[in-house]
Amino acid sequence: MYFAVITEIAFPVSEGMLSLHAFCPDCLVVLVMHCFDFMNCASGYYDDCFDYKVICGEERPVVVMSKKHPLANHSSLDFRELKEETFISIGNDVSSAHQYLLEMCKLADFEPKIIMAADYSFRVKLVEDNLGVTLTTDFAYPRNYNLPNNLICAIPILDPILTRTQAIAWRKGRTISNAGQKLMNFLFDYFR
């Protein structure tokens, strides 16, 4: 979930809503530049027109799979071992989680066989049923996969390694509203 603050009202915004940028590549930047106080984003999504503060350090890749999966007993994996697996993605092309999957596959020199795009809850169910695997990070796994869950596991990927960093970004020089500052402080405390 992404959080956005407009004037003095804080409200959650689904990833899909912020992904308006799929239809208009500059929409996301326009929204943050002119409407929202700030946005949560992964490394690579903030640039020279944004100030940002990192909310969590380097995230490392893990593959989430059913404990019934033949590779589930491994303590770590080379991502190339997943070349023939079916993947369940978070969805749309501008999602940082989806981009992370595509970038990892590119580093491992294979095209992912994505059988379905689903939100976090549905992905958990599909993985529990051993219908595919999904890629996430060591930071996101305990927060987004309804843990404790004794039907799935997360196995660290040792090679190739593609780390990412989560940050809160806002337009350079923008004064953050009181509600925005409170929400931002809450997020920094929560992810610490």
Any descriptors?
27% helix, 192 residues, disordered N terminus, alpha+beta, single chain, 3-stranded antiparallel sheet, D-Maltodextrin-Binding Protein, domain 2, 4-stranded mixed sheet
Can you offer a commentary on this structure?
The longest helix is centred in the C-terminal third of the chain and has 14 residues, at 178-191. With 192 residues, this protein is of the alpha+beta class. The protein is elongated, with a radius of gyration of 17 Å. Helix 3 (96-107) links the parallel strand 7 (86-89) and strand 8. The protein contains six helices and eleven strands. The strands form four sheets. It has a four-stranded mixed sheet with strand order 6-10-5-9. A three-stranded antiparallel sheet has the order 3-11-4. It has a two-stranded antiparallel sheet with strand order 1-2. Mean pLDDT is 77; it is low at 1-28.
How are the elements arranged and paired?
Blueprint: E1 2-6, E2 9-13, H1 15-18, H2 27-34, E3 39-42, E4 50-59, E5 61-66, E6 77-78, E7 86-89, H3 96-107, E8 113-117, H4 120-128, E9 134-137, H5 141-144, E10 152-159, E11 164-171, H6 178-191
Parallel strand pairs: 6-10, 7-8
Antiparallel strand pairs: 1-2, 3-11, 4-11, 5-9, 5-10
- The total strand number stands at 11
Query: Which regions have little confidence, pLDDT < 50, spanning 5+ residues?
Result: 1-28
Q: What is the mean predicted local confidence, pLDDT?
A: 77
Into which percentage range does the β-strand content fall? 25-35%
Task: Give the tally of structural domains.
Answer: 2
In the CATH hierarchy, the third-tier topology of the largest domain is known as D-Maltodextrin-Binding Protein, domain 2
Tell me the major beta sheet: 4 strands, mixed
Using the coordinates above, name the CATH class of the largest domain: Alpha Beta
Please tally the helical runs, counting DSSP H or I stretches of 4 or more residues: 6
* Estimated radius of gyration: 17 Å
The rough form would be described as elongated
